[in-house]
Amino acid sequence: MHVVSGKGGTGKTTVAAALALALASEGRRTLLVEVEGRQGIAQLFETEALPYEERRIAAGPGGGEVFALAIDPELALLDYLEMFYKLGRAGKALKKMGAVDFATTVAPGLRDVLLTGKACEAVRRKGPDGRRVYDAVVMDAPPTGRITRFLNVNDEVAGLARIGPVHNQAQAVMRVLKSPETAVHLVTLLEEMPVQETVDGVAELRAAQLPVGGVVVNMVRPALLDADAVAAAEDGRRAEVVRALSAAGLGGTRRGGSAERLFDPLLAEAREHAERVALEHLQRAEIAALGLPGYELGMQGEGIDLAGLYRLAGSLRKQGAA
Amino acid sequence: MNARDGAPTVSGREPAGPGPAVREPAGQDPAGAWRPAEDREPLDVVPLAVDALLDDPGTRIVVCCGSGGVGKTTTAAALGVRAAERGRRVVVLTIDPARRLAQSMGLNELDNTPRRVEGVDGSAGGELSAMMLDMKRTFDEVVLAHTDAARARAILENPFYQALSAGFAGTQEYMAMEKLGQLRARGEWDLIVVDTPPSRSALDFLDAPKRLGSFLDGRFIKLLMAPAKVGGRGALKFLNAGMSMVTGVLNKVVGTQLLGDVQTFVAAMDTMFGGFRKRADATYRLLQAPGTAFLVVASPERDALREAAYFVERLAADEMPLAGLVLNRVHGTGAPQLSAERALAAAEALEEPFGAEDPGAEGPGPEAAGDPDAGGQETDGVAGLPGGSAGGGRQAGVSGSPARSPELLAAGMLRLHAERMQVMARERRTRDRFVAVHPEVPVVEVAALPGDVHDLDGLRTVGARLGGV
Ligand SMILES: Nc1ncnc2c1ncn2[C@@H]1O[C@H](COP(=O)(O)OP(=O)(O)O)[C@@H](O)[C@H]1O
Ligand SMILES: Nc1ncnc2c1ncn2[C@@H]1O[C@H](COP(=O)(O)OP(=O)(O)O)[C@@H](O)[C@H]1O
Ligand SMILES: [Mg+2]
Ligand SMILES: [Mg+2]
Q1: pTM greater than the 0.90 cutoff
Q2: Residues B240, B230: contact at Cβ < 8 Å?
């Protein structure tokens, strides 16, 4: 099971989807699970809203298949009550009264057990041939700030149920989550706040003994020039660079000529770029200090469409993430 | 682009723009004659006069809202500094400042009251105080202020209350409103700038307090508290049996203890409920009053502007006063006359003698993205080599370094410029889709600074951009 977390907006949903695609190569089958009820997966794959039901949404490279499931905690609770308490029509009454909503609200831990429980069930599920139904389950998880609590359901429900089905469910979930079969990946950008959240998140996960997977640095932009190059342009190279611009057909070199007039604005852009490169370098160092496997995904110019998603999946595979 | 296809839609597809204009440069001065590839003129916007808003003594509350990560906290802090240095007595209520920004403003997490910010120029007669919201503490304060000591203690020690005050969805929004009401009541400042919580959706700020209120006030809680009363009403009699079945199941599922805690909590809070709702309603009305101005903050990205559009519509529906849109982290250039296409072509021409295999294929256009190898991490450390993480392939083929070769240096600068022009075109298209639908909303653009904003000088820079300087 791959759990994908990260600061909001860094690309959790995108990366989770790309990873599910990447893992679905050569006839393999993966399940992409959404737990926050935002229908982000449906939007990404350009399909209608996902029901509470596993459904094939894409073909992996080389004949694999990606399934998707949006888990609705209320429906999951009803399922669950049905399973253990045989409520029949009373279940509907419960829902109508607001009791289901109430229960998942007053006990967020309960909600989390239901969500993670459903995902873990899919991990362990076997087909008639005795083999696992899914080769991998990828979860588009809550953001870094909540991920440890979310996964550490055992602690969360300890105060609720000390015996009985909820307790057993929590135990079973924790067994899967803490096993080497699970990896929690964190998505970040090369910016101060997301990197800080990643560092804090890794510390929390480790303290809770949850298995940390890799760090995915998303929306990486190419570093074209660095501070040395900019410094060279600033002192003494002006005339030569202007000549080069002119030679490339961008106008005359005379003072006030168009090539000459390009120099200052282009230098200003280069300086900003170099400053960003230097900051990103610091952020990379912070990430490297975590000692985790790292993956990088480039910024897709026009945002993410299906083709872009497949490109990201290919990139993840090339980097050995799948 | 017209309003019909410009409407932000759920799928957010952009209409296909005109292809890149392939034009021969005209005349002696080709760079000057060249126009950006997009022939559409950017739509006109009504400029947002932020300084006039801040200087107007009638402006008493400015609320910065928008979706997560767009720059609400930064904007709120920058407005605070600017207003104070222009002579107003300001307090900024921040919710989640980045660590370094918080340090630079002297905010520490431990107290829940405003502190003076050092280093702000008070020569115009103004001053700045700032605080960071501690939602649990704010909740505790409310409880303490509204009940006698014994009851307050019972509530504060109740495990359900502790869970609720630490993280119930909506608590942060509710407490931000509560704190705003308190600051206003203290009357020590003539301008309050409010940051809003980091929710995914901008609308949460307006909706969450009501959600919390209606939960505390909800039907099920009422049933839970008074099953006997409900059962007593003939027609609903079956509910009584139903209720005990329900509470029985709930006891098993959420735990006897918790259900008991909820019941105790609700009983203890009973007298406060009315007060809670009244306070939330009062603050809501404060937000509708003429002295309040909402600034919707967005980055020039599809999702953020879609949220901004929803928010603009919602404010109008709720009769809340919108001052305008702050479009944050917008890119600009000093050389708009040089198009992306031409800059790239020139860069390729300059790189050619250096044996780059096919530099164009790895250029910073959309097709360049997506493929940095894991090993790319190291490459940006190599002095001056072009390529970095996304250009491993090209870089191997180029046998020079920009720090030494003026041609490669010029080529690198041109590639950067091409990338900048592409980003600007995209940002403008995204912005125009918003403007087409909401032409009446005043807009101010704030440039993307190369680094983070983490000190007073950075805030002054952002403030100057807000002021249109
Ligand atoms: N590598 C990328 N290049 C360009 N845009 C990206 C990339 N990854 C994500 N995005 C965009 O960033 C936005 C946020 O991504 P999303 O996956 O929804 O983040 P999260 O789930 O963490 O909130 C989306 O608009 C998405 O299309
Ligand atoms: N105009 C800007 N240029 C560069 N960085 C910015 C700008 N505005 C905000 N930032 C940075 O963006 C990050 C998120 O900003 P923040 O104000 O915390 O967003 P929000 O409060 O909306 O979540 C911070 O690291 C901040 O320094
Ligand atoms: Mg998401
Ligand atoms: Mg913020």
Answers
A1: no
A2: yes
